[in-house]
Design a protein that fits this description.
The protein is α/β, with parallel strands linked by helices. 39% of the residues lie in helices and 18% in strands. The protein is globular, with a radius of gyration of 22 Å. It starts with 16 loop residues before the first strand and ends with a helix. Keywords: Amino-acid biosynthesis, Aminotransferase, Arginine biosynthesis, Cytoplasm, Pyridoxal phosphate, Transferase. Its EC number is 2.6.1.11.
Length: 411
């Protein structure tokens, strides 16, 4: 490798891709790969979607940017469509997930000001991930994200995920809580699903206490879990939701949607973004919604997710090296008994398959929602072969590392 002039913020795999089509990618040597992570839940419509490419080209030939000093027709349209889909009243557009959550957290502060609370707290969850900016890394329940960035922004209080008793207890102890920020499925945290009952009880608690219920749908939103939004599974509607990842299918865009009083908190001067909601990004967002609606992608994610989960459970569940196989729509995790990060590189090399490992021992799959059932079977085939071979090797290495007497005693 020649000297890189990029800051060493990422540990990158030794592969670069040159082009893609649907769920397939080709590297700079022309080798074909199957993509089971979709750029971390971003390219839900697959790579090089012809309608998205055409929309980008057409809009780039008309107008990319004018700033929010002026009206933006595509921003109005995308805002209206997202609000209709999510049951929200107003939208604010930005450029990333972290910025969408920053927007939500600023709404929580204004909500506190309205209520005369000077030192407000936002409840956040253990094991959560909300981004890398100062506010969102403080909100994230992952010490690795916070490491080295003290002092952290104050104003957060942490509770265990999916535990309504802990939250009620917290409410008793802290009268200055103004909002709760929660993922319907913890993604980076390893695919942990909030139960519908928990979200319903959380909704009720927010109503009683006057808290804003804020849901981070950045990874789960727009079909990934088998419904348009993760909260749909619980039959509730939050006060604020945040979106990003899949909204632009790779073109950077984020959104914070709010309803009722939360939708009316901002006045000019409170918040803004130079790029946020530009004509190009918003036109692509509308195109993503057109395709997702027409192809019924939430339903497709539900069906393909069931196929993928069943396939992996049949091959891997019950194996001593596998703690469990779980999922929600096309968010799937295989929890291993021991760290397995090297599997990411191995999957690329030996199976031409893109996977992710989070929290050291959780294999995470986020295939594009436009996968074919045949491609889902290929993911099952390649991944289970890889995992079973890995476990056999790990077991053999463990035996040979033991003293001879123990190895013999163990048979
Ligand atoms: C990816 C993600 C974020 C951060 O989004 P960025 O675009 O990387 O800032 C926040 N919350 C959740 C749940 C995510 O999955």
């Amino acid at each position: 490798m020649p000297t890189s002039y990029l800051m060493h913020a990422y540990s990158r795999q030794p592969v670069s891709f040159e082009r893609g089509s649907g769920a397939l990618l080709w590297d700079t040597n022309g080798r074909e790969y199957l993509d089971a992570i979709a750029g971390v839940a971003v390219t839900n419509l697959g790579h090089a979607h012809p309608e998205i490419a055409a929309a980008i080209a057409d809009q780039a030939g008309r107008l990319i940017h004018t700033s929010n000093l002026f009206g933006i027709e595509w921003q109005e349209r995308l805002g209206a469509r997202l609000c209709a889909l999510a049951g929200m009243d107003k939208a604010f557009f930005c450029n990333s997930g972290a910025e969408a959550n920053e927007t939500a957290l600023k709404l929580a502060r204004l909500h506190a000001q309205r209520r005369g609370i000077a030192q407000p707290l936002v409840v956040v969850m253990d094991n959560s991930f909300h981004g890398r900016t100062f506010a969102t890394l403080a909100a994230s329940g992952n010490p690795a994200v916070q490491q080295g960035f003290a002092p952290l922004m104050p104003g957060f209080i942490r509770v265990p995920f999916n535990d309504i008793a802990a939250l009620r207890q917290c409410a008793e102890e802290h009268p200055d809580i103004v909002a709760v920020l929660v993922e319907p499925v913890q993604g980076e945290g390893g695919v942990h699903v909030a139960s519908p009952a928990y979200l319903q009880q959380l909704r009720a608690l927010c109503d009683v206490r006057g808290w804003l219920m804020m849901m981070d749908e950045i990874q789960t939103g727009l079909g990934r879990t088998g419904a348009w939004f993760g909260f749909n599974h619980a039959g509730i509607v939050p006060d604020v939701i945040t979106l990003a990842k899949a909204l632009g299918n790779g073109v950077p865009i984020g959104a914070c949607l709010a309803r009722s009083t939360a939708a009316a908190l901002f006045v000019p001067g409170n918040h803004g973004s130079t790029f946020g909601g530009n004509p190009l990004a918003c036109r692509v967002g509308c195109c993503v919604l057109d395709i997702s609606e027409r192809e019924q992608l939430p339903l497709r994610a539900k069906q393909l997710g069931e196929q993928l989960l069943r396939g992996l459970q049949v091959r891997l569940a019950g194996h001593p090296g596998v703690r469990g196989v779980r999922g929600h729509g096309l968010m799937i995790a295989i929890e291993m008994a021991a760290p397995c990060t090297p599997l990411v590189e191995r999957a690329l090399r030996t199976e031409a398959l893109l996977i992710n490992v989070t929290r050291e021992r959780t294999i995470r799959l986020l295939p594009p929602l436009i996968c074919t059932p045949v491609q889902i079977d290929q993911i099952v085939e390649r991944l289970s072969r890889l995992v079973l071979l890995w476990l056999t090797e790990q077991a053999a290495a463990a035996v040979s590392a033991q003293p001879a007497s123990v190895a013999l005693a163990g048979g």
